[in-house]
């Protein structure tokens, strides 16, 4: 770690020079939020514990101190948050190259032979160092402040979780990430509908089965003698046909490279087909046709969206593979290669691969999924986990593979039930105990491949599904995955408490009747946890 620190120090110094002019602007922007944050958490903090003599300011400031740390420490070291949910220099590589961060954090300028592509996310040592020790681990159990006590946490959280807006059934757990010790639990072992917090489990399973550096490859293969060109889907949910690829695998690039390879062979006309046989079973989710999810196919471009959006619900094409193949045909035509109307097929073992494009590393794909609560990516990762572990690549096989991977990691699965990777299935069941255990595992020193689970969580008031929440609360302090279905509201993530300890939490509510009120109740609870010393 000392060698690593020495290696990145010049890069971080350079990054500091780049972001220092931005710091003044970031500080000015965050100051009103800090003031609102202090006001929002003051009532909860007052209930936490009696102030020690001469320390009153620590409690009345509440989460404002953490917000100030965000503005001056985190922003100064790492830069502001970008649109995809990553801090600009959470990656030392990105900081060293004065890049804007996010999904595209590659290793320098593009060249004609080697276009710029995203590099794997590192073990997020800089992220965890900002939350705990200098060695990238979370704050030690023996720190001066000590962990919050169960009784103090109960005094703070019980009244908030008793809000009628949270419905008849709810569960909660708070765990010290450094020790893995549960500090608070209320129905923590009760299995409830998790909604989109299921994606945390999907992310952990995929990363553990495939590895953070894994990439999904789409290829064009030419069958000998028949001049049949097969577009082979590799299950890349981030493949794009848009003119600006932003670092994701480009169908246009694949067509250009394929056309070039064909022309070298003197081929200007082909029979075009497409292969989706990597996946099996029904493509349409059990909830039916839905704007939140396209039919799940091994070949898809831009998630089958019918507009220029990149996230959120929108009408989808009915056959993503055929849609992608038609676009591919159009791109080939623009390069002088004529094709037949594409149809389904399967590439043989004799086919010659002419060109390939690959996704960013799985670490980046996972972060995008969690930040935007992307159902298409989640279902793709469930099936890719199945492929990697020998299960059938279907909804059922993906669910089986997820559970098996979590069991291998020693996670508490009692009562858990998986039916998909996205959490859209109302028959999914998870416990607050499992959700917090997943987050603790993602922060464990012996599982650096799981760090994207933490770095991909939406940031309160700034990114993803939390960008419009906590504007009067713990903005920038809470990082959490949201979950919403009719009658279900959930929230699971991490928070740095008043003493600088990293806590994992999970709140699940079922039987809610007012989603906005339930969401606000969960946000108030997380805000109180952020402002808590709780000794």
Give structural notes.
Among the domains are: 229 residues, Beta-lactamase; 144 residues, D-Ala-D-Ala carboxypeptidase C, peptidase S13 (D-tyrosyl-trna(Tyr) Deacylase, Chain: A, 3-Layer(bba) Sandwich), CATH 3.50.80.20. The radius of gyration is 24 Å and the shape is elongated. The N terminus is likely disordered. Helix 7 runs parallel beside helix 11, helix 7 crosses helix 13 and helix 11 packs across helix 12. The longest helix is centred in the first third of the chain and has 45 residues. Strands 3, 4, 5, 6, 7 and 8 form a six-stranded mixed sheet that branches. Strands 2-1-11-10-9 form a five-stranded antiparallel sheet, sandwiched between helices. It has 15 helices and eleven strands. A hairpin with a 5-residue loop joins strand 1 and strand 2. The protein is an alpha/beta fold and 535 residues long.
């Amino acid at each position: 770690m000392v060698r690593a620190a020495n290696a990145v120090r010049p890069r971080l110094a350079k990054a500091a020079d780049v972001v220092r002019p931005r710091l003044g602007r970031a500080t000015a922007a965050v100051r009103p939020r800090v003031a609102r944050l202090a006001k929002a958490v003051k009532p909860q903090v007052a209930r936490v514990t009696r102030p020690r003599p001469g320390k009153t300011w620590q409690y009345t400031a509440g989460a404002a101190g953490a917000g100030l740390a965000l503005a001056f420490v985190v922003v100064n070291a790492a830069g502001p948050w970008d649109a995809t949910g990553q801090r600009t220099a959470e990656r030392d590589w990105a900081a060293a190259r004065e890049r804007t961060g996010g999904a595209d954090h590659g290793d320098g300028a593009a060249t004609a032979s080697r276009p710029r592509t995203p590099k794997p996310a590192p073990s997020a040592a800089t992220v965890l160092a900002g939350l705990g020790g200098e060695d990238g681990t979370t704050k030690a159990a023996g720190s001066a402040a000590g962990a919050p006590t169960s009784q103090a946490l109960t005094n703070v959280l019980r009244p908030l979780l008793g809000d009628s807006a949270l419905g008849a059934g709810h569960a909660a757990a708070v765990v010290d990430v450094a020790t893995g010790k549960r500090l608070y639990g209320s129905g923590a072992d009760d299995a409830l509908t998790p909604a989109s917090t299921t994606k945390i489990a999907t992310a952990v399973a995929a990363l553990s089965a495939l590895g953070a550096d894994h990439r999904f490859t789409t290829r064009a293969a030419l069958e000998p003698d028949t001049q049949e060109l097969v577009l082979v889907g590799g299950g890349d949910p981030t493949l794009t046909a848009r003119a600006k690829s932003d670092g994701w695998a480009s169908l246009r690039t694949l067509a250009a490279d394929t056309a070039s390879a064909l022309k070298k062979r003197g081929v200007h006309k082909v029979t075009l087909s497409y292969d989706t046989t990597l996946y099996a079973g029904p493509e349409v989710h059990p909830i039916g046709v839905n704007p939140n999810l396209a039919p799940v196919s091994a070949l898809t471009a831009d998630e089958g969206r019918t507009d220029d959006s990149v996230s959120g619900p929108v009408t989808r094409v009915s056959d993503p593979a055929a849609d992608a193949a038609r676009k591919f045909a159009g791109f080939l035509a623009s390069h002088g290669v004529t094709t037949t109307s594409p149809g389904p097929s399967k590439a043989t073992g004799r086919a010659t691969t002419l060109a390939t494009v690959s996704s960013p590393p799985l670490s980046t794909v996972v972060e995008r999924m969690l930040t935007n609560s992307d159902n298409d990516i989640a279902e793709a990762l469930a099936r890719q986990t199945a492929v990697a572990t020998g299960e059938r690549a279907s909804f059922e096989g993906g669910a089986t593979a997820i559970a098996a991977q979590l069991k291998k990691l020693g996670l508490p699965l009692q009562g858990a039930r998986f039916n998909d990777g996205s959490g859209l299935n109302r028959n999914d069941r998870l416990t607050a105990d499992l959700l917090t255990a997943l987050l603790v595992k993602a922060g464990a020193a012996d599982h650096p491949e799981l760090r994207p689970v933490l770095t991909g969580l939406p940031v309160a008031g700034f990114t993803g599904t939390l960008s419009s929440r906590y504007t009067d609360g713990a903005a920038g302090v809470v990082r959490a995955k949201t979950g919403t279905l009719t009658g279900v509201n959930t929230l699971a993530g991490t928070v740095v408490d008043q003493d600088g300890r990293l806590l994992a939490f999970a709140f699940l509510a079922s039987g809610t009747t007012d989603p906005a009120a339930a969401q606000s109740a969960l946000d108030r609870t997380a805000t109180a946890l952020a402002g808590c010393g709780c000794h």
